[in-house]
Amino acid sequence: MEKQQENNNNQEIGTDVDEQLINEVENQLSDDTITLQDSLQEIVSLKNQIEILQDKLLRIIAESDNTRKRLEKSIEEAKDYAIVSFAKDLLSVNDNLSRALEHKPQNMEGELANIITGVEMTKSELTNILQKHGLESIEPLLGEKFDYNIHHAISQIVSDEYDQDSVIAVMQSGYKIKDRLLRPAIVQVSKKVS
């Protein structure tokens, strides 16, 4: 009997120990599950932050590259067009030399011939220098179609000889430097009788 009671006591103690052990394991599993869920949520959150930071980094790199390209283009333009105001001032000198040569006398002798030759040489040298620095003359041909991008019309003249809006007289040559217009060619254009 004592043995049986001892077995019953042991069974009760064993049952209590088993229940206690089961409770501890369940608590531990529950805590592990919560910890595992928290860890997974934290991992997902960190991955999202990494993606956001990678996107920001790529945008910053792209913006930096664009800024560098804009700066390089600006420097290149500054090199190409640095002489624009100086060139504009020289164009009037070139125009005056051209006008002087348009009115040279037919019969030249002695000193007058030497002066005219000097003016021609000066104009030629100035034209070469302008071309050397990228200035290009705009010399419309008679009958050429009027182009408002490079021509400036000061008048329209009725003409049966030329098509409508054709250049019929060039009053002043135009100039451009690379692809930038310095001064349009000043022209007269034709107009048909209505």
TrEMBL record:
Classification via NCBIfam families: PRK14161.1
Main localisation: cytoplasm
Tell me what this protein is called.
GrpE protein homolog
Task: List the SUPFAM superfamilies hit by this protein, alphabetically.
Answer: Coiled-coil domain of nucleotide exchange factor GrpE, Head domain of nucleotide exchange factor GrpE
Q: Per the record, what is one GO cellular component?
A: PAM complex, Tim23 associated import motor
Give the record's subunit note.
Homodimer.
Family membership: Belongs to the GrpE family.
Query: Coiled-coil stretches, from where to where?
Result: 36-81
- UniProt KW keywords: Chaperone, Coiled coil, Cytoplasm, Mitochondrion, Stress response
Q: Which biological process, per GO, is one annotated for this protein?
A: protein folding
Which compartments is it annotated to reside in? Cytoplasm; Mitochondrion matrix
Function per UniProt: Essential component of the PAM complex, a complex required for the translocation of transit peptide-containing proteins from the inner membrane into the mitochondrial matrix in an ATP-dependent manner.
Q: Which GO terms describe its molecular function?
A: adenyl-nucleotide exchange factor activity; protein homodimerization activity; protein-folding chaperone binding; unfolded protein binding
Name the residues that span the membrane: none
One Pfam family of this protein, by short name?
GrpE
Q: Which domain of life is it from?
A: Eukaryota
